[in-house]
Predict the structure.
Amino acid sequence: MQSDILEVVGLCKSFGGVQALRDLSFSIREGEVLGLIGPNGSGKSTTVNLLSGSLPPTGGQIRLGGHRVEALSQWDRVAMGLTRTYQTASVFPEFTVRQHVMLGCEAHRKVSPLAQAFRLKRDKSEEDRVQQKVAQALKLTGLEAEADTVVGVLSAAQQRFLMIATALASNPRVILLDEPAAGMISHERETLSGMIRRIRDTGISVLVIEHHMALIMEVCDRIVVLNFGASIAQGTPAQIRENPAVIDAYLGEAA
Ligand SMILES: Nc1ncnc2c1ncn2[C@@H]1O[C@H](COP(=O)(O)OP(=O)(O)OP(=O)(O)O)[C@@H](O)[C@H]1O
């Protein structure tokens, strides 16, 4: 039985009078892909924003490897192994792919990313470690052949893969993917599915928010379903697909 790497306990978030999350609890096991699905406005992005430290919770706990992190900064969480990607690809277009991925290594070291991207003050063993990490991230995301390509000329899907590669270079134990398939066409989604499975197979846990149900059902080991900020079901894809409350709240419209 795998142990839990990330535990969410009684998480709450209010925006003024809007209760975006209500007493949400779930956990992610080591080396599993967990899907987070639900209708628009059900609280998926808010959950990722609270887990990553982009927003503070109103209440509840977030534990990474048994340590409470809900009061820590986003950078401290990255250094502890909790990283994320964003819904919109946000990249530095003038960097090469390799330089861009290196930024992720620096996020882990908590050193000025821009200074380190231009290779200031790295000793030989540190340089080797960075190159190894970058090579692994490029391999996992299928971007090896593009290592020396300028980011600005990549396709939209490749830029999304680059965000994943950059996040992987921070040496995560858990990676949060916020709508990674947005705007992708069929063969790009297939590439993404394979990538998510390869990441999982290295022992990294993956939380995926996604509206594309075929991708979620194919790639996830377990799924948490949100509705109005609360969990209405948790289980395997087969269990979720058959759950009447989920069909009623979401899958009826998404399928
Ligand atoms: N910064 C904010 N200020 C006020 N209300 C917010 C804010 N962010 C989210 N909300 C509200 O919180 C609720 C949950 O929103 P959230 O974006 O987390 O949902 P979601 O499931 O990610 O939706 P979508 O699938 O459309 O991205 C919604 O009612 C939303 O309007």
Q: What stands out?
A: The chain has two domains: 1-81+174-186+205-255, 88-171. The CA atoms of residues 126 and 132 lie 10 Å apart. The longest helix spans residues 124-140. The two ends are 32 Å apart (CA to CA).
